[in-house]
Amino acid sequence: MSTQPLLIELRTEELPPKALKRLGNSLADAVAEGLAKEQLIDGTPNYQAFASPRRLAVLVQNVRAVQADRQIIKKGPSVAAGMKDGVPTKALAGFARANNIDIGCLKQINDGNQMVFAHEYAQAGQPLSALLSEILAQAVKKLPIPKVMRWGSSTHTFVRPVHGLVMMHGKSVVAGSVLGLESQNQTLGHRFLSSGAIVFEHAEDYAKNLREQGKVIADFEERRCVIEADLQWQAQQLHARVAADDALLDEVCALVEWPAVLQAGFEARFLQVPQECLILTMQQNQKYFPLLDEAGKLMNRFLLVSNLQSDDPAPIIHGNERVLRARLSDAEFFFKQDQKQTLESRLPRLAQVVYHNQLGNQAERAERIRTLAQTIAQSMNIDLAKTDRAVRLAKADLLTEMVGEFPELQGTMGKYYALHDGEDAEVAQAIEEHYQPRFAGDALPQTAIGTALALADKLETLVGIWGIGLVPTGDKDPYALRRSALGVLRMLMTHRLDAQPLLQAAADTFPQGKLAANTVAEVSEFMRARLAVLLQTDYAHDEVAAVLAHWPQNLGDIQAKLQAVAAFKQLPEAEALAAANKRVHNLLKKADTATLPAVSADLLTQPAEQNLYAATQAVSVKIAAALAQHDFQAALTVLADIRPKVDAFFEDIMVMGKDETLKNNRLALLNELSRQMNAVADIAQLQAA
User: Fold this and answer.
1) Among 396, 404, 406, 397, which Cα is nearest to 277's?
2) Closest Cα partner for 279 from 250, 245, 251, 252?
3) How many domains does the chain have?
4) Is residue 476 part of a domain?
5) SS3 sequence, 58-93?
6) Per-residue CA distances from 293 to 240, 324, 599 (Å)
């Protein structure tokens, strides 16, 4: 059966830029899925998504004009339920009547479980035109649109008003209606650079005609590559590099259909303002691309992406420079005004800023962080006076004009204002670092004082917010507790600190009864689960489970233990030792290990238990020495030496005998064996390699 490419386009008013790429891909995926489900695609779906500010489209290859005929089998009641003493039951008669067929014409087939009556018939394939409107309508319903709108007198809804619909199969228009629009073979191009309708003779002409006649690069990724290449070329001409992330590039790509990258500039005097403020103003407010010199310093040149290509771009450049000048003047004003007051002079006003209605104000929170930071500083053996000064000033910049305008600059502005006030450079650096890491993959604080503050800040958030019942659920985490937990874990691993004492210290900073009684235990388990997710990107699930069974612990040893467990799992003895460890676990569950006596060598009467005792004693010395050197691989490897003794013990010895004295002594021996086998990780968790 011959096939043709299928083109679908929804022409809209300007779509939300931050959602455009996702909308385009989602529509294309849903249309291809719907076509495949209706068996209208020959082979594996092959399609291309298009998305620009005023259109969403998809071009699907190898689409049939008509479905292939299909053999349909409708299963009815079982043979046993359909016939009683050779007479059709009501169930069978009803099934035949519903399918308009005589009972005698029904077949009997095996459905895999039993014999059933079935109606088997050939169903002629339906034409594409009979199915496409519904396929597209269902695809539109699946789009990730948080809020829809109506337009004009229409009752239809979409993310933005829709003004045109193209549905073409090869050279033919596929008749149909979606969102109140009839399909056609034409669209409109760029709002300013194109005029009149753009007609498609063939579905394959879509991207070419839009580019040549409509001044529209319809493919999102192609348009993005054009912008990125031009940005890099322009930056190279200025011996600069572009300060922008993928999110800004995606957003700008979603704002233009025919991009033109232009150079512009601003007065050098604005460079007296911290460059973080200027960069944020340019990126966030104006969607411009700041430029950095070879030393990483902001230049007073920037790049902008226009949606107009002009022989004389000067008016566009000057207009954008004028708008930016006003923005930078605001930033300059805020910066100068803020410097008229010291950070310390702002501290009393923290009491007027609510942190959370159940947890008090920012001044109270700052005191909790201050107390906790002192505890952390002592455990890290760092300067207590500088730590206290840094934590005292850490939240003061929340009351500045600049942070009020750009909350993203909290901490950063605190550093600049602290330096202006004459504070110690380490104190100023710690004020900035105490928000790090701000997101997944962000850098950790580089200074010890910054680390202490960052840990205190995030631990107070974790314990406090969790303790009043605001725990993450599903994809909802309004207080970013998952992000805080990962940040804490990364810092604890780097600085070789224990989680449990710090969680308890954080909880102790809150008034008695303010937090739920089980808060520390729940947050500890939450962090263990987050750590497992983090580690499973590099290690097997069972290896992570084995190491984290000993939680809490010094997190600085986690990586070394995981590497040791991964190596141990490859040993030929590992599988048998893991199985033996499970057996030991199960036996010890039947005993109160806390009350077991020390192992008495005199009560070990059988050679198998005597040999295991001697082996356990010998291996405990080696394991202790290895652990003292943090050589976890050596501590696990020596376990291979005792495998024959463990196997012989379980073959020859009845542990749970009637003699209580002998039973308890053997359980005590197994308890000691368990301590040695699990000194690094719970090897019972390991699966066969």
Assistant:
1) 406
2) 245
3) 5
4) yes
5) EEEEEEECECCCEEEEEEEEEHHHHEECCEECHHHH
6) 5, 20, 72
Q: Are residues 168 and 113 in the same domain?
A: no
One domain for residues 608 and 580: yes
Q: pTM for this one?
A: 0.81
Question: Are residues 522 and 654 located together in one domain of the fold?
Answer: no
Residue 293: how many other CB atoms lie within 10 Å: 13
Q: Are 282 and 319 in contact (CB under 8 A)?
A: no
Q: What is the DSSP letter of 597?
A: P
Residue 145: both structure tokens together: 């649109």
CA quadruple 8, 12, 17, 21: dihedral, nearest 10: -10
- The confidence score (pLDDT) of residue 585 equals 80
* pLDDT computed for residue 291 by the predictor: 97
Is residue 155 located within the same domain as residue 258?
no
Residues 265 and 240: beta-carbon distance below 8 Å = no
Both 28 and 167 in a single domain?
A: yes
Quote the tokens at residue 203.
């579905």
Over residues 404-420, the pLDDT tens digits come to 999 999 999 999 999 99
Domain identity same for 362 and 330: no
Torsion angle in degrees (nearest 10) through CA of 632, 636, 641, 647 = 160
Helix and strand numbers (H, E) in the chain are: 27, 20
Q: Is 534 helix (H, G, I), strand (E, B) or coil?
A: helix
Q: How many residues does the chain have?
A: 689
Strands (E), 473-553: none
**Average pLDDT of span 378-387:** 95
Contact call for residues 68 and 1 (beta carbons, < 8 A): yes
- Domain end call among 518, 535, 552: 535
CATH code of the domain in which 603 resides: 1.10.730.10
- Other CB atoms within 10 A of residue 181 CB: 18
Among 165, 181, 214, residue at a domain's last position: 214
Domain hosting 425: range is 356-535
Task: Report whether pLDDT(1) > 60.
Answer: no
Residue reference for tokens 């191009």: 189
Whether residue 246 is contained in a domain is answered as yes
The one-letter code for the residue type at 6 is: L
